[in-house]
Amino acid sequence: MTMPWRAAPRAALSSPLTLIIAAVTALLACFLGTAAILQASAAGGAAVAYQSGLACPDYYGPVFSKDNVPVAVAPQVVDSVRRHAPAHGFGTPVTSRYTPYLFGTEFNGDPNYKVTIAHRDQAVPGHIELADGSVGAGLLLGTVVAKAEGIKAGVTPSIHGTPLPPVTGLYRDLADPAPRWWCSQQRNAVVSRLANDPLDSVMFAPDGKTFDDTVRTLGVPAIATLHMSFYEAPPKTVSEAEDLLERSKALIAEVKADLGARGLGDAIIGSVPFERSVTISNQAESNVLISILPLAAISILVGCAGIGTVALQWYQRRHPQLRLLSARGSAPGALGALAVAELGLPIVVGGAAGALLARLSLGVYGPPGELDDGALLQGSLVAAAILFVSLALLAGVITVRTHREFELGRVRSGRAKGVKLLAIFPWELVTAGVALLGWNRLVDYGKGSRVGNPLPQVDPLALTYPVFVVLTVGLLAARLAWLALHASHRARLWSRPALQMAIRRLASARAPVTGVLVIGTLAVGTLATGIGIARGQEEALHTKSAIFVGAETRVDTESVIGTGKVQLPPHLSGDTTIVGELTGTGSVVLVVDPRTFRRAATLGPLDGAEVERLLGQLSNPGTGVPAIRVGNDSAQKAALGAGLADARTIGELPMFPIIGTKAGYVISRESLSPAQLRAVPKWSVLSGAPLTQVTDALTSVGVATAVNRVTRESALDALPFYLVSWTFSFMALLGAVLGAVAVLSLLVAVEVRRRQNALAGALVLRMGMRPRALLASHLMELGALSGLAVVIGVACGISVAGLSVPRFDPATFLAPRSALPNPTPFALTVLAVGVLVVALAGWIAMRSVRTARTAELIRA
Fold it and tell me: What sections of the protein cross the membrane (predicted)?
């Protein structure tokens, strides 16, 4: 009695379609289960990478810093950090030291200079650019002061008669903002020319000995700022970031204990600036995982249901053999093991292929982040658990069925009644209730980000709302289709035989038809929702930053630029414009140059042609100042302030760069007199060039920039937008997988009915129907099913996405609100895929007719 079990793998080849279905079902279930784990881990890695890009490159590890450190204490602090760092996996720290401002510094007999003596490890050479002279046993002076005051290399400065080391070279002052390597030293190493006297300068000592000798010579009692940090490689995963955080805290504790034993416990303050970023990255990974877990669980349950269906199909096909084995004494458990022996290998192979495919295709569907070391193991364990459950379910279904039928002798009437009860149960009411509950939870989504939390608070039930809406519509459509097919026998359309035959074929397979309709609708709707919400947040980030900044770069600057006293450098004039801003009247008044504003500003969702038309009318003559009215505030007053006449509205826009949707006016610089231009308190340069290029160009013409500079990349915290996009990209993945299941189900349904289609097709061809008409009949049948799923899925998915996108907006306080992107390309793509699938299924159906032998079909 061991032969059936021993020969089971070979016997499975007698039904290749069952093998394929079992393998593909396991593949999809394991793919989605593994993908959920990898998606969350990659999201954490992407969040770490994003936070690393925001932080200074020497802020990933520990930072030791303090102001007013006694000169005698500073070497002990530096020595303690250097000694203990290697034990915790850190290299040599980069030490920065700055003296207080030295007033009365004398160059060439002029004692009106104010300088700071500084030294930073590895700064010279490499991170300071020499413009003249050389690095020697002296100091380096910035070129701004040297050029303005005619100071040359070789000059020996002094302070109150005490000579300093000679100026051996001139270096180019660090730009504001500082280069990335100097990021953490912005406060000390960069002189803000707008806020400080133009005679201020930082003089760098090229080595520590020169700095120490200078401090000793001048008798400086304390170091104004002592700063020590480590240039570690940025962490790529959450686990790497957490390990770096733990080692940093351990080093800080050891240094504090060492200094405390010497009575210097408060000599330095240790901190880990990247700790907040680690917390945010960890939260991002958890948010994505919690968000997609319900979707992954639903998909895995669907996969398990598919395995159960495969078990029932196998039971029906092997029923005579199972009855015989049971009569000869085989237990139900042994018969269940026979099913596992026959179908277990394709299920395991399919599941393993699904887990491998999830890893290989992560770059296509997942966030652009590195995986944690344990993510692959966790994903593999999830896939193994799914396979174990699948095999147990396969054996359990066969065991229970054989026990009920062969040992208990129960008839199938009870099962038929149970199936009928399940069929008529209003499941759509249940799913609609869950969708309504999710919608109510969705109202509060994102509230956390508005109260200072960097990431929106996650409610998994709110995130499943779109899926349950689409599922409800799909179930409702399937129920209506079931009723219509049940009543289709009343149709009398024999004058159009192709259509009549298509209706009869649909009616004869109501269960598969409604199943494919539900899966197809759910697939298309979920795909539309996932893509719509994910892309909606990506476009929202793009448009919000465009409106907020007004251009790629915005730099506040001195009024000499706005009044025209100083002209913009020629190489910036092509994509740069100047805007002024007035407030105080209740409205924001933006002063623009109509000729250059359109080519430099980013307009977001605004119509460029309409904006250009209105800008061209700002010079029209008439009473009052011609202005573009911005916003929808009915109580908005026409007063402009600053001695200007009231506004004369020549057009309206719902929003405008920089102003957003606030009440405001846009006027032309040509409407203001020179005195009125000087009264504008704030002037900004909008440019399409990078920030460093803009600031360097302004510095080259002697114009200082303010500290509030902004670019589109840094204007907004993009992580909350990315988080929503990463979450719903998994929903789009689920829709794509369900779409593959729907297509496979349709093709399998056609292939299962191959003999029936061949017999019916051969007979009607013998009766005089043309092959073209028979093909049209099959295309009507398959097209009606696929078309219904596509139309309902697209309409429902786009509608749900349109309602959901604004509610998932993590920055509702910024205009414009998130909106659904153009759905036309998606709809056309799905329609094209549907046409191809219908054509393929019709070809399969017609192939069975063309290759059939009528005599053999009738004889069989």
Answer: 288-312, 333-357, 377-400, 421-442, 462-485, 506-528, 719-752, 773-806, 826-846
